[in-house]
Amino acid sequence: MVEMPTNRKRPRGIYLLPNLFTTAALFAGFYAVLAATQGHFEAAAMAIFAAQLLDGVDGRIARITQTQSDFGAEYDSLSDMVAFGVAPALVVYHWALDGLGKLGWLAAFVFTAAAALRLARFNTQVRVADKRYFQGLASPPAAALVWAGVWLGADLGIAGADVSWLAAFLTASAGLLMVSNFRYLSFKQINTQGRVSFLLAVGVMLLFAIIFINPPLILFLMASTYAISGPIWTLLQLRQNRQRRRASRGSGAP
Length: 254
Hints:
With 254 residues, this protein is mainly alpha-helical. The chain has a single domain (16-189, 197-247), classed as Four Helix Bundle (Hemerythrin (Met), subunit A). The protein has eight helices and two strands, in the order ααααβααβαα. The protein has helices spanning 16-37, 41-64, 70-97, 102-125, 139-155, 164-178, 198-213, 215-251, and strands at 133-135, 183-185. It has a two-stranded antiparallel sheet with strand order 1-2. α3 (70-97) packs antiparallel against α4 (102-125), α3 (70-97) packs parallel to α5 (139-155) and α3 packs antiparallel against α6. The longest helix is centred in the C-terminal third of the chain and has 37 residues, at 215-251.
């Protein structure tokens, strides 16, 4: 007698702790949009900054507590789309791009669409990609380039309309970098649970001190430096590869 296969029951419920942080990041992105529509651009930028910090915590908590799940991964992607795809585009649109008409909303849409494409590509390549690098600028640092720029402008008292073309260029460029093939260091190889040197701890302390001197300026410079590092790193790698090929052809037998 052939036994019929038993139907396995799928586990019910979700892990609470990591998804609480994901929900908090989602709320921060939602609040950023509301704050921008009311003209509170510094608060909107800081809300996306908070979402970025929360996004960096939920995954680590899930790994530490062994509570990873497919639901959590999908929920995190949807939260990232709101906090780092929709929110930055709408914040910069209300701050500076509204006066440009169709070009303004086109630049904002390029950023949002690029964030969606970037997240979709990342989700399909997560099991085969080299974890040391990102292909294209990740959505959180791309969002940082936008919200830090808005925060810096609002902190300096610069009207968004006065730098609308610069804001449009920055927004569209951040979007194009997300869907590019430039390689960015992911820093995932850093072991945050092991022991580190005392000098590294001092360096982290000094970094926080430098950021607190002028948060919008320092964070914008950090985001810009990381965004530029991808093209520079990729071009250097291509140059080295060409030099190796030339050297190998020159040393090979005729």
